[in-house]
Every structure is written in structure tokens, then in C-alpha cells.
Amino acid sequence: MTPNALLSSFDRDDGPVVPMAPRLARDTAERLQTPRIRSKIAALSRLPDTLCNTLWPSSTGWELIDGAFRSYCPHCCLGDLREQRTPYGRRVWLQSWCTLCQYHGAALVLRNPYHRLASTEWSTQTLRDETHYLAPDRYRTLKVARESNLRSLILGALLDIERAISNALAGLSPNPLSWGLFTPTEFLRIVTDLTTWSLTHFEPVRAWSLAEDLSPAEEQEGYALIGRRRRLSTADYPPRHSLRTLREVTEPKIRGSALWAAHALMSASHVGASDRDATASLQERQAAYLRRAAPVARTWLANQQRQWPALYRRRWWITEQSLDNSRYDPHFSVKH
Known about the structure:
By secondary structure, the chain is mainly α. The protein has 15 helices and 4 strands. A hairpin with a 4-residue loop joins strand 2 (100-101) and strand 3 (106-107). The longest helix has 20 residues, at 150-169. The relative contact order is 0.10.
């Protein structure tokens, strides 16, 4: 049964639901999620509460603002086709912290406009091309010397922080040896602050955000896992928006860049690129990011840090004096 037919059977008050244009398909899906329709489906299907909670989980607060399935795992979709079923979006792909398929260990792919055409949507050949596009050796226009292990380090760091966020949303505290000692809520707050800080353009000129200011080795070896699109400024933000959060960024690789930066700033086990912070300690990495940030960005982060746990700031973060004395140096951490 199509979504339109299902909605028509439960929502007769509004008349039959005719086939919609692609741009309105999202409206149909949203109407199927309304409490009134959900309660009707659950009652007529005699669904137990546990199954209802699975089908309609409560909001985590980390969902992408654009609720459409704009990114997907081509490996999962190929598996759907092999099982002779229509590829479908996984709910986890709508979470702003999710940039990887945890099952396949591969980057999510941003859907291109041609995917929405009926003649090419979810074709086996297209999905196979996408898996080849994501292969580690696909990007071979070398800018710097190869670092064969760096891609594995980036992938491991993203898996690490995404699992920690997922566990925190489920009420589990992160590993205190790697992340520090705090509650799941405190951990999520700090991740939110750091990803927002690294994605936001605090100056009026167009530039890369801290998250997208990748070193040559990071850009080369992190292909499709982390990346950037174009230089922005606050003038490119929606009206009355001065910050850029994970939830507002559709492209998985840009969100991956923010999570990679957050991992460098929070995790004691982080190992970076040779031209960035491969052998730096946690506090040295924090100082490096702060020296690359504009003064207004450092001020914003200092204000956010006042709401962090005092014990965490004292043991895991550089001191306020180091924060105040860090001079603006956009090239500090890149070796030439």
C-alpha cells in the first residue's frame, strides 16, 4: 500500500488523497506521523505499546531540520534490492549526528537531484556507482604524500563519537577514560556547543568554518567522510540565524567534519593528520583550534564553557588563562 492510499483509508475527513507531486511527498509522510493518524493505525492494527514506540519513537532533539531523507547508505539500499524490496530510509539517517552507516562502516551519500527521477531512482547500477565512489582509493588526485592510515583514523574517530552520542541519547554515559566524567546530558551539551562553534562563521567575510578548514592530508584521505562545500559568512544564513548547528547542515561530510573536530577537542584517544595534530596532547589540540579561531568565536565558546561541569573544565580543558592568551593565528596548526 502506498503512503497516499494508507492516508486515504485513515483520513477520510479530508477526502481522498490523490497522488502527490514529489515535492509534496514529505507532507504525506508527515501527516502519517500525526498523533491522530498514528492512534488510528495502532488501534485498528492492535499494535502493542512496545511496537508503537518502535514505529514512532519519541524525538531525540537531534533530528535534521530538513526531515526528508536526503542522505542514504548505498550498501543498505543495494541490500534492499537484493532482498527484492524497495529501498527505504532508516530513521537513524535523519539524525544530525549520523554521517556513517554503522553496519557497513561507510559514509552516507547525499542524494542528487537525478535520484528523484522515476527512471533512475534507486537503480542497481547507480547504487553500485555510489559504492565505488566511496571506495578509499577512489580519490587519487594526490595533493600531499599518502597517509594510508589516516583514513582509518578518521573513520574510527567518527564511529567513536557517533556511538558515544547514540549511547548518550539512550541514557548511557561515555567512557570516562576517553571522554571525561560527566552525565549523558552534559556530554550531549558539550558536543552540541563544540560542533556549533566549529560550524559557525563568526566573522562577516566569507571563509571556511573551523570544521571545514581541513589540512591537505585531512581533505585528501578523508574523502567523503569529512569535507566542505564552499566558503560562507553569516550573510548566507537564514534570516535571524547567527549560528550554524549540526541540525541545519544536510550534507553528511560537512557534519562529519564538525564531529571530527569535536573528537579532536574532546577525546583523549584522538590521533590526527601529520600536518595537523598527530602527536599533540588533548590540551595542545584545544589550543591549536583556539588559535585558529577569531576572537569573537573564542569569546562565544568561553561563554558556553561556563555552563559545562566545573570538574570537566578543570581536568580536561585548557585553562581560562590559556583561552584568553591564545592569539588569533589561522595557520597555527598547519605545517608548511
